[in-house]
Amino acid sequence: MQFASDNTGPVHPRVLDALVRANEGYAPGYGADELTRAATARLRAVFEAPEAAVCLVATGTAANALSLATLADPWSAVFCSRSAHVQEDECGAPEFFTGGAKLVPVDGEGGRMDAGALRAAILAEERRGVHGVQRGPVTISEATEWGTIYGPDQVAAIAAVARDFGLPLHMDGARFANALVRAGCSPAELTWKAGVDVLSFGGTKNGLMGVEAVILFDPQRAREFELRRKRGGHLFSKHRFLAAQMAAYLHDDLWLDLARRANRAADRLAEGLVATGQAELVHPAEANMIFAHWPRRVHRTLFAAGAQYYLWEGTLDGGPEEAPLTARLVCDWSSPPDAADRFLAQFGS
Amino acid sequence: MQFASDNTGPVHPRVLDALVRANEGYAPGYGADELTRAATARLRAVFEAPEAAVCLVATGTAANALSLATLADPWSAVFCSRSAHVQEDECGAPEFFTGGAKLVPVDGEGGRMDAGALRAAILAEERRGVHGVQRGPVTISEATEWGTIYGPDQVAAIAAVARDFGLPLHMDGARFANALVRAGCSPAELTWKAGVDVLSFGGTKNGLMGVEAVILFDPQRAREFELRRKRGGHLFSKHRFLAAQMAAYLHDDLWLDLARRANRAADRLAEGLVATGQAELVHPAEANMIFAHWPRRVHRTLFAAGAQYYLWEGTLDGGPEEAPLTARLVCDWSSPPDAADRFLAQFGS
Amino acid sequence: MQFASDNTGPVHPRVLDALVRANEGYAPGYGADELTRAATARLRAVFEAPEAAVCLVATGTAANALSLATLADPWSAVFCSRSAHVQEDECGAPEFFTGGAKLVPVDGEGGRMDAGALRAAILAEERRGVHGVQRGPVTISEATEWGTIYGPDQVAAIAAVARDFGLPLHMDGARFANALVRAGCSPAELTWKAGVDVLSFGGTKNGLMGVEAVILFDPQRAREFELRRKRGGHLFSKHRFLAAQMAAYLHDDLWLDLARRANRAADRLAEGLVATGQAELVHPAEANMIFAHWPRRVHRTLFAAGAQYYLWEGTLDGGPEEAPLTARLVCDWSSPPDAADRFLAQFGS
Amino acid sequence: MQFASDNTGPVHPRVLDALVRANEGYAPGYGADELTRAATARLRAVFEAPEAAVCLVATGTAANALSLATLADPWSAVFCSRSAHVQEDECGAPEFFTGGAKLVPVDGEGGRMDAGALRAAILAEERRGVHGVQRGPVTISEATEWGTIYGPDQVAAIAAVARDFGLPLHMDGARFANALVRAGCSPAELTWKAGVDVLSFGGTKNGLMGVEAVILFDPQRAREFELRRKRGGHLFSKHRFLAAQMAAYLHDDLWLDLARRANRAADRLAEGLVATGQAELVHPAEANMIFAHWPRRVHRTLFAAGAQYYLWEGTLDGGPEEAPLTARLVCDWSSPPDAADRFLAQFGS
């Protein structure tokens, strides 16, 4: 009954196999090896972007912060949703890497950024010369921190607003695969064809050990990114081991397969929760995360039975037993069906 | 004939095995797992430092820059040797992470920092209030970038100068194991007992895939380090896979064994070079690196035969065939004896 | 009819006289002169704070940003009101000087920060270790950007919340004099006695040419402030000319006299506006600024007649003539009574 | 006998008069006033650069650090002379404003940067991709910190090297006027015609209260400079008082007149020193500063008699009475002839 996070699960065996296979003899360091070339080519093919620049890093925070630093000036406003990982969960990494840009939260439903709210937020920034921060990049999360997704049209709507003001669009795709398989379109359609300039393409939450690819659809920005990556301590000397993971991830569509498994596990769990009659979904579970509430009493039972997940709102102590508390449940590719069954069984007991 | 760098070689099989073993089921993220606890305990035992704080990161640049940022103020002078990795090879990472500290090169022999020169350099900084940068941390590399080492007395001599001015001492131990087995003392004797406050304890160049441990002998500094690590994008969510590498590294003294192999390979190669009568060592090869010069003509032959190493001074073209050019040769734990033999054979041909 | 800003008015003649008198012969640079000593002593006396450290700078942005940088870590949340100058009008200076802290807007009435909202905002920040930014300093503006003030009890209420969490309190007193003469208490009562740790004590908006004093009631923080000031390019070599202004400002209570004049001018104008029956105050005019709305038609008339002020909400074009638009009117010590009369006369025409 | 610094002297009366005259009624803030327009036009005329952008700031450190930040990337090497003010006397302001660039000292005679040494220093930086900092702007001081100057040909020689590598050239002209009147050429010839891209045009050390103009001969860079100025807290609200000083400085060539006076005072003092037979010039006194050495015994006499200047090398105590110690003597426009006479008289006593 492990639903704490998609970073607590194991690495997929084919990824480990790839690491073992990559460990043959010598290979040039810092990304000059064959495996890196192959992973780059594969990513370009998957995204139908033969010119795109690809840079691998090991953490999502690095991918996002380096991307935003490349797109923003130190005096930029960076428009993000209120619950964005860059705003809430990176200890100010974007501020650090950009040299002090200001994140401006934009409202929206279900963890998404609303295109109209974005336009209003951009218009509200600096009309007076140099006194305020200057309009800068827009960043959205796909899937969002609330487990919802943007369809390609929704991405395009955000991109259209950004383009109206000449602002670049970044996508934090820590759970890109989960969003993509739900959206039912191509990787290109959900990114550059919809107007995304730079994508943090996540792997770590979907079966890798620790690799994210930053895809810069405009390769002009790549040199700056590479300098920032090195200077940020994020350029790996034994780079082949990042590349090997990414190559295995893309091979035979493993990434899509793993995302589908995670989403299906979330779907089944969400349906089961609703079927108990005691739980209510806060948002539709569109990716691999469920936000739902049910009585404090049932949370108590679940934790006592060893279930692992986060209370997103409320605490176990300090209120009536029937009061609803919001939980976050995350499924990953390895979530076993019987874990959901055992979890749901607690509702009946 | 692969002597380009100790980061081009493979990962030791026992390290890969450890990754596979670590991949069992779920584990809490961000370092709250059992493997991290075990690796920390093991490092404390190895360094006889039960109170020390241990933080794992994936690159040497991260280890060094985060360490210096924790020890320095933005307005600090950071005293380092002229050839230090932090000065020459990190694209300004220390300046970035510290918020703009100034690295002050200090002279010395063989890549080392001279204690007297350090005292002079410290005395030369800011005697006039706020006009110049302020005296800050001292950092030395063990082994140095020129393949020499500091014995415990030499470390203590540097530390004594730093202490005279109340300045902390950092050690960049990217090749700490290679230095230690040559110095023939205990890890504690080469570090905190000699006056080192913070150690970047390298693993990547000695058989790991990508793990360095920062050991803060004064755990008071750990909280700041941890915040900087997170903010720098260097806190791994699937942290167990860093810990598993480090644990395997320390288990049964694998780290010492690998370092001895690398040093022995370097020793044999150095002796062989001298024996050719055509090569001359620039510095004694005390760790796993050799700096030596021999005629341009011979370099040409070696490269033609497929040898891989860096010309440290001079270029293949543009001078007399008999002119000496300096090479850097690096051995690692996996350097096969016959590679050295084939390399040396080129001198006779 | 000049009500654009209190930085468009002239310098008080006694301040200019002081500059001329200060221009006698030689004086040591960088604040080691007699005038600086005298101004410091005078500020300490005025604030009944004999131990306080005093640092002069030339702009309000420098005073605020250097203060916050001294109180915050790069990974801090800085709690400010939504309309704070540091948030809206300094082009990210606090983010720059702190090394990337995150400003967290806190709600409240009339441009003030509400103590309860502050507590909620602090509680909402980081309960999870290192993932989010860490709770840091609180900053309030006295008077606020909406022309209201905090009485000493209101300052104390904010300070009490900050103290509950061990957080320091900064006051942006760009219009401190205007607030003080309205509050009717002593400088000490409105600052350190109420719990303020660091004050940006403004002079530029109240008759000086360009001087603000940062008063650090805890002098322990002064050394860091001084280094940041120098490093920020804000330490003046001919420092006596900053000190001379500040000394003249405090001499014979000139600062209080000028603030009273400005406030009285604002009072009269506010009363006159209300009396027209066409204008409505958005907030009570407690300092030297008025926020009021009246019909677009009247704005048009006023601008045509040469009145100078900012439309704070709405634009001259694009709506019905009777629609109310909000204006900001600022009075300073030099605002002539007849300007208000002429201004008000436009309402009748 | 006041020779401590050219920032300890008084402001020229015509500058004070200009401040008084500027204090008439209202003027728009932040540089939108008529005086700023006039000062800008005058500077463009003086420099025969009708397109140049002009930005006023109040300190030399601000002028230099903002200029370098505009020209450099955070990962840049900034090439400067070993004794440059930016390297030695600004508490790391360039590092702070650039976001962590690395200052690379270049050798030369008499405080100048040698063109050949510059070429070598540039060539020595980063030939290996992203591992080291990247080649960035060159900055020279005119006059130098050792009281020597670059003639236009010498500036052009430096500029030619910079241009070979596509690097911009900044000139720290804190004592530009002193250098110019000695060089005997036009302001344009000593700057943009010789290849200077951005000039910090000093006024504070030559009779102003606190104003430096940054002249960007390529106005494309101006917008970034202005944002950095605001964000750095260096944009003055009552900007007319900076402009008034600068206008007075240029009016009727006051700036050249004051520089000539300072240089003449230095010339006479230097000649007098040599004539004593006890003093020896360390460098030719080409601007308004003298570096000379004479016996410790005579220093003792001079200080006892109330002379004010800095010992640049050596200390009063701790050596033989006849040992030579180096002094720095600075003259400014107000240095009275009899001060030099009284100073020299101590040598005979």
What is the count of helical runs of chain A? 14
State the fourth-level CATH superfamily of the largest domain in chain A.
Type I PLP-dependent aspartate aminotransferase-like (Major domain)
Q: Major sheet of chain A, described briefly?
A: 7 strands, mixed
What share of residues of chain A is helical? 40-55%
- Order of SSEs of chain A, N→C? HHEHEHHEHEHEHHEEHHHEEHEEH
Q: Largest interface, by Cβ-Cβ below 8 angstroms: which chains and how many residues each? A: A-B, 50 and 50 residues
Cα(first) to Cα(last) distance of chain A is 16 Å
Apparent shape of chain A: globular
Describe what this molecule looks like in 3D.
The structure is a homotetramer of 349-residue chains. Chain A has 349 residues and is an alpha/beta fold. Chain A has 2 domains: 13-252, 3-Layer(aba) Sandwich (Aspartate Aminotransferase, domain 2), CATH 3.40.640; 255-348, Alpha-Beta Complex (Aspartate Aminotransferase, domain 1), CATH 3.90.1150. Chain A contains 14 helices and 11 strands. The first copy, chain A, has helices at 13-22, 34-46, 60-71, 85-88, 93-98, 115-124, 152-164, 176-183, 187-190, 222-231, 240-250, 254-275, 296-304, 337-348; strands at residues 53-57, 76-81, 102-106, 134-141, 169-173, 198-202, 212-216, 280-281, 289-295, 310-313, 324-330. In chain A, strands 1-7-6-5-4-2-3 form a 7-stranded mixed sheet, with helices on both faces. A 4-stranded antiparallel sheet of chain A has the order 8-9-11-10. The radius of gyration of chain A is 21 Å and the shape is globular. The mean pLDDT of chain A is 96. The interface between C and D is large, with 50 and 50 residues.
